Amino acid sequence: MMSDRLLPCRVLLVWSLIVALILPVPLGGCVARKQDGVGFVSGASSDRAASASRADVAAVGPEKDADRAGDADRERPRGLDAALFNVAATFMGLPGLAPSTGARDEGLGYHQDGTARRAGSADAFDGRQARAYMGAGLMGDGAFSSPDGTLLPRRLGDEYSGRRRDYASRGFENFNLMDMALDRGLNYGMGMLNSAGEAALSGLVDNGRARLNFQLDRDGRFSGEGDVLLPFWDAPQHTLFTQIGARSMDVSGGEEDGSQRWIGNFGLGHRWFPFAESMEEAGNLMLGWNVFFDNDFSRSHQRGGAGVEARYDWFHLAANYYTPLSGWKNSRDFDGDFVEERPARGWDARAKAYLPFYRNVALTGSFSQWYGDNVAMYGSSDDLEKDPRVWSYGVEYTPIPLLSAFARQRSTERGKADTEFGLQFTWHFDMPWEEQTSHAKVAELRTVSGSRHEFVDRENRIILEYRAKNAGRIEYLGPVSGQTNAFAFRVTDGLGRAWAGKTVWVRADNVTLAVAPQPSRSLLALAGDVLGGLFGAREAHAATASHSYVTDSQGCFTVRVTSPVAGPVTLHVRAGENEQSFTVNVVANGTLKMNVLSAALTQGTTQHVTFTFTRNGVAQSGLEVRFASNAAFRELAQGAVTDKTGSDGRVTLELTALTNDTSQTISVEADGQTLTQSFTVTPGKYALTAEPGSLSQHREMEITFTLTQGGIPVPQGTKITLSGTGVTFDGKAQYTCVTEDARGAITAKVIVSRTDASITATVDGGATATVKLQVTAAKYSLDASPDTLTLGMDTKVTFTLTRNEDVLANTPVELSGKDVTINPADTTTGSNGTFSAGLTATGTSTATRTITATVGTDTVTVDLRVGKATFGLTTSGDTAFDKNKQTITLTAELTDANGTKITLNDGDVKWSVISSKVTSEAWMRSAGAYNGLTWGQTPLSLTAAENDTDTPAGTAPTGAEAYLTDIVGEREVTVTATVEYNGQSYTAEEKRVTFGDGPLSMFEKPLSYYMTWKEAAQKCGSFSDFSPGYHGETNLPRKEELQAVSGPDNGGYGAAFAAKWPDDRGLGWFCYWTAELHSSVTAEIVLLGNGGVDGYPYDFDVPVAVCRREGSL
After folding, report:
1. What is the 3-class SS of 818-883, one letter each residue?
2. CATH number at residue 625
3. Which of 362, 563, 667, 942 sits at 20 to 30 Å (Cα–Cα) from 240?
């Protein structure tokens, strides 16, 4: 921190240097400079006169083309000749060629912070120093030559000295090595002065910072920019600083002395580091504010600015607001008599972000908004925009602190865009070489601590906006061709735009100023003209005549003078606050005459009428003629029509008389005079039209008729009577009415009974007009429901009859058809247009039957499809065995062609069981036996004496439903049925019925006769001892399993008898071993005849044994 004793001295020294910085002393040899123009962009010219500006543009076009070609040459790589030239120049102690890109050293030295000082941007002070150096020697293939082939066509240094180039008289003799040496020396000298100045200014205050980049050319032109940041209070958490700068801005046009605008920036700012621990550890957050006062020393403009900034670790954000402090002043970029300028108001937002994970890369972006109708967004008055907006974004890459690369893109609302690429070398005086080339050092520099003494990111240039004064620049265009004493003028504002719709006053002595045709004006302006007319005349005949004119969209107006004598006349023209005088030569005016070749017109017919204008017998060519508005003619009904005469003094106008009045007159204004012409009109013929012109027979429709005379609608309220052939009007033969509106329209409801109908309109007075109608015959339709017949079956069909899409009610109808019987064939439609009949398709064909309905003399048909009935079987009932049986229900269904089911009664159906197949392992009969299958009723009670049967037990059913009951299981049965209906026989497809696992599914085939319990246990499974209880290891059945296949006394239905299990040596009862031992001497048996349970010595071989089926446990 600085000491209190030295602070007043240092502050005084700082401000002394500031005064020297912002008030540069002009050097000798300064010459005038003009900006080369390349065309109009916004429509505003910076030159004092529009014509002069256009001349400049035309003159510099080829010169700019040469510049562009030269730029291409300068970008080529240097060849061997360029390298040898540099060696020779160094040997002689002279400066050699400059580097080929502006990013390298250009002999200007370095800033205090190590960044290379540049010669300036591509357009800086119209010099482009870097390009001048690059073009100052041998350029490879284009050595010592220009695009047009001349040898060194320009004097070295011309590109940035401000002098205009003249290629006509220059050649190799102008090659001046002294100029090269002087330019190079000035650049090196200014570079050293800039570096010394930065060091001196930075050392005034601790942690001070300066950047200077001023240039001086050999013409004594001083330009550039410089900034100084001086902290007054530096603490770990607070930095209070002042930032002072000065810079030059090129003048884009209008300056006669070639000087730049010098702008000074005076700011005060504060930065707060809330998490700082020391000066070196500032934390990761910085918040700041600043205020600036900007002063344009060249033009006395003042602007205020306020900004805020914030940085969090890797992200920096700044926003600035700019507002003018000085008012409007006469512009020095334009003619100050017509244009004013002041600082523009606006704001911007700027952002810069380093990638947190890789801080060698930074993303930048900004947005600027300026306000004003004519803002010089880029500082050039040749390119003005309204409320311009600018977007900018880019990327920077810093591999090491010494080197950075960047790419930026800028675009505007008007579609302008440019891209910039470059390299930047930065030398840090307080950093060792190892750190300047260290990749890791970059991340350390991208911290909040490094932003403590950064320059404020803002727009330091003062952007100007312009406005035109209330003073029009008046230009005399000359006499109007073909018109007598008519003179054209044009008025533009200071920005070169047309002064459209403005009032201009003209004064003249000893002549009359005629009233000229006025362009369209507002109602308020027209009212003012009417009030003014109450107190004045249309022409001024006083010694001094005065009249006002309104400019057109191009800012032009015409003054017409009537003078009794020929000679010069002075016109005093005032546009706003500007008044100019012009002397014109007038001739003595004669009487204007108008002649029409033919004055006969026919109502409604467009005719070309030729008017001829002469004065003193001479045809008046180019004469502006205005035909006044007139409602009696179509072309003039909407307003006046203006035209000009040809070289023969003629002008042709199309005229169409709208009324049948026999005489009409129009008014014509030309050369300040009003003339009239009368015409004789012949009434036209009547014509009648109908809309819609196409009608449907027998349908009432509303028709709009239009009656015209000569193509012109008859007046509203004309009485007309309508009549016709084959038509009625609301049930009447005639209809009398009046036209409803100015279109000659009449609306009537009409019913047409004939296809050749026509309607005649009789006008009150006897004249008639007829229109023939286009009649479409009535359209019938016949719908049937259902639309399908069943072959051989009677079907009730309901028909719906319509005509013209309306139901035809209470109308007799006769039906007929081939290969079909209809009952009844003659009938009458109901109130809803429907009727019914029974239809039967006869024969054997299923082809479509066509039914014809006859209504009077009209017929309509409908096609009916024909199909056959279908007969099939469906199943329902038990899906599995329940209580040792399963019953399945079969249903026979007869359906007609429309899907309607036919009711079947008992006796109509004949059922048949075609086959049966049992697959159970415990089945001991043939697989196709029917034992255990009951037909048409519940299962029978089976006994041990039942034998094999050829058919299922029971009586076959004859109704629509049949029942099959099975007590065995694992059986598949095939069933079919036939039915007789209306004399036709239908047979259903075979239906397979499958029965699931029954009570036999638990067993294998019985083993044999005469087997002890132990033998049975060993054959079916295993045996260990005779302990009482259940022995599952024997694989012998439980008693419940044997009872399920036994007689009906214990829940079984005799499945064992149906399967023909073996009996006990003809004793008439079956007994089978179970897996249960009652005691050490007896085992359990089941009597299959009735399902009874008993004990039996296990060493007796009387019972029979059956094993459980493997997997059934």
Report:
1. CCEEEECCEEECCCCCEEEEEEEECCCCCCCEEEEEEECCEEEEEEEEEECCEEEEEEEECCCCEC
2. 2.60.40
3. 362
